[in-house]
Design a protein that fits this description.
With about 300 residues, the protein is of the alpha/beta class. It has a single domain, classed as NADP-dependent oxidoreductase domain (TIM Barrel, Alpha-Beta Barrel). Helices cover about 40% and strands about 15% of the residues. It is built from 13 helices and 12 strands. The strands form 3 sheets. Strands 3-4-5-8-9-10-11-12 form an 8-stranded parallel beta barrel. Helix 5 links the parallel strand 8 and strand 9. Helix 1 packs across helix 3, helix 3 crosses helix 4 and helix 10 packs antiparallel against helix 13. The radius of gyration is 19 Å and the shape is globular.
């Protein structure tokens, strides 16, 4: 049984694709910045029903959004076929930001608004479907942040709001100041990182019917080629399941995430068009419950209690 290609991210939230494409590696190969190459990547995603594209101002040394936007300028009709997510708040030490002396976070009203306006210019769009605060800051003032976010929403520059890497308490603190609900929490989530299943992150998403987004679903490639104990144990189980289901290892990892009732939205980051097509096959895999727990137990190194 295949999963639906689309999901409502939250009650009253946007409808997005069940898988999202992450642009953080868009410039790993400088040739990938060519507008026609990016267009081919976008079209491959759209052909597979992947319509949600995940960005951040900092990706690619502050250059990925502009590379993606150049492709949209070359084919502007594509914007209406996709949902654009972007993030703000992290300040990197980078030649593109010479004023940054140290890596830090900035959630001042002025910076949030300026960052979004810059993202809109770079992405060649009038609005973001979803804006995420990229990481929590010890200096984040919920009242000041809420004021900036309300302004962006009222101006039509941002439609929906979310966070990334926030704890449940941090999400609740911000949500208490907003006029509209947060629609997602994007967190690192994969079989080698079980903490979000246990620390209340996914429980909160279930409570509020929020679909979390999962970044680095393959653990940065460690699930496929890592040599640690947990990596080796999980890969051994995945190899057995690959034979059982007639699937690729990465398809099984995505299927493992998709099996969770919070309706996790994995964010894939491959630049290989054939892998994008292959990963979409995870939507047709439904893992047996015992197979799901076999992956869990391999990661933890012990059966569940």
């Amino acid at each position: 049984m295949s999963l639906p290609l689309r999901v409502k991210m939250a009650p009253g939230g946007p409808e997005v694709s069940r898988l999202a494409y992450g642009a953080w590696r868009l410039l790993n190969d400088e040739q990938d910045a060519d507008a026609q190459r990016v267009l081919a990547l976008i079209q491959t995603c759209l052909d597979q029903g992947i319509t949600t594209f995940d960005h951040a101002d900092i990706y690619g040394g502050y250059r990925c959004e502009a590379a993606f936007g150049a492709a949209l300028r070359a084919s502007p009709g594509l914007r209406q076929r996709m949902e654009l997510v972007s993030k703000c708040g992290i300040m990197l030490v980078d030649p593109a930001r010479p004023q940054n002396r140290i890596k830090h976070y900035d959630y001042s009203r002025q910076h949030i608004i300026a960052s979004v306006e810059n993202s809109l210019r770079n992405l060649a769009t009038d609005y973001l479907d979803v804006l995420l605060l990229h990481r929590p800051s010890p200096l984040l003032d919920p009242d000041e942040v809420a004021e900036a976010l309300r302004q962006l929403v009222s101006q039509g520059k941002v439609r929906y709001l979310g966070v990334s890497n926030f704890t449940p308490a941090q999400l609740d603190a911000l949500a208490s100041r907003l006029d509209q609900p947060l629609v997602t929490n994007q967190v690192e989530l994969h079989p080698l990182r079980l903490e979000p299943f246990l620390d209340g992150t996914l429980d909160q998403c279930l409570q509020h019917r929020i679909s979390p987004m999962a970044w680095s679903p393959l653990a940065g490639g460690r699930l496929l080629k890592g040599e640690g104990g947990a990596e080796s144990r999980v890969r051994a189980v995945l190899s057995e399941l690959a034979r059982k289901y007639g699937a690729e290892l990465d398809q099984l990892v995505y299927a493992w995430l998709l099996r969770h009732p919070s309706r996790i939205i994995p964010v894939l980051g491959t630049q290989r068009l054939e892998r994008i097509t292959s990963v979409a096959g995870a939507l047709s895999l439904e893992l047996d419950i015992q197979d799901w727990f076999a992956v869990w137990s391999a990661s933890s190194g012990a059966p569940v209690p």
